[in-house]
Amino acid sequence: MRRRRLGGSSLEVPVACFGAYALGGGYWGPQDEAEAVLALQVAIDAGMDAIDTAPVYGFGRSEELVGKALRGRIGQAKVLTKVGLTWDARLEPGDPRLAGVKHQRAPDGRDVAVVRDSRPVAIRACVEGSLRRLGVERIDLAQIHARDPHTPLAESLGALVELRRAGKIAEIGVSNFDARGIDEARAILGAVPLAGHQLQYSLLAREAERELLPQAARGEVGTLVYAALDQGLLTGKVRAERSFATGEGRGKRRSFQATNRARVNRVLDEVVAPIAAVHGATLAQVVLAWTIEQPGVSCVLVGARSRAQARENAAAGSLLLASAELATIRAAFERLRLAPGPGAGVRTWLKYLLGR
Ligand SMILES: NC(=O)c1ccc[n+]([C@@H]2O[C@H](COP(=O)([O-])OP(=O)(O)OC[C@H]3O[C@@H](n4cnc5c(N)ncnc54)[C@H](OP(=O)(O)O)[C@@H]3O)[C@@H](O)[C@H]2O)c1
After folding, report:
1. Domain 3-85+117-353 class?
2. Which of 46, 63, 108, 110 has its CA 20 to 30 A from that of 3?
């Protein structure tokens, strides 16, 4: 497993880190907990020794499972978690943060309101909750999950700097920021490094190539890119016959619609499979290796729900593709066009039909 340092921080992570979102269940459908713990342990043993989680993943369940997997293994893996999304916000009625809340599916099937709250008091409570669930004394990377527009960024980052000084967190990161937000965060932090930025990036979602990855490639921040497998679609294992229960979020995604699934799988079969065969690798491993090699990417966060998936994903961290192979894969996905998803407006359909 190759390793890279995140930004100007002291935190070094494997190029493929374990993403523990799906282990929380809810949006992802039911998860066998014993298998989740074993998958985490197998991943750590295979060199995937940095785990990304968040309090909101399964409303505490993902962090608890990470804590179980680390019992007796403290120090064997870096723990990356988040602050700033809460489901038990203690806010006065009428607080602007309560407007426009989003709902997330809990493991018991309820849809729970999630609030962006990065006030210092909320950040401190969040970190205490994570330390307890994870069973660790220090979090290796604490990231603001999504920017809270109603709290000045300087106040949120100030709280994280204090927690760093107190030894409760080692490094500071952010997630889902825009390029301006990254500049702002770096300016506020001054001599304290902004270690990492989590952003979505995959062969099917390359918007980050416009600003965020070039910014990272200039050395301004490390990047932890998520959904590199497009929630499993880019493994080639989500074929037409696979169905998702109504409560599962993935079935509703644009790329998971029947026509789009078929288009993605055609590219995987015709272009990626021959490259995978040359390396004795799987489609998922080639897709992960492609993502890891893109300029500005420090590491991929990849979810696994079983020991077999964990082993397969960890091995991708040692796979090196030739530059011609990287270019062939990029070109094939650049030619791919996905049909608009459910709920798309007339303008989106028109643009699609007119080929724009
Ligand atoms: N900061 C943010 O806002 C944010 C947002 C999203 C994610 N993230 C982070 O990024 C991590 C990864 O993203 P993600 O979990 O959304 O998506 P992902 O890694 O693209 O997809 C994970 C899913 O793909 C399937 N899969 C994974 N490896 C496989 C393999 N080898 N073979 C077959 N199927 C495989 C599994 O689902 P099935 O087995 O059920 O098919 C798994 O749950 C998260 O866990 C989280 O840590 C952060």
Report:
1. alpha beta
2. 63
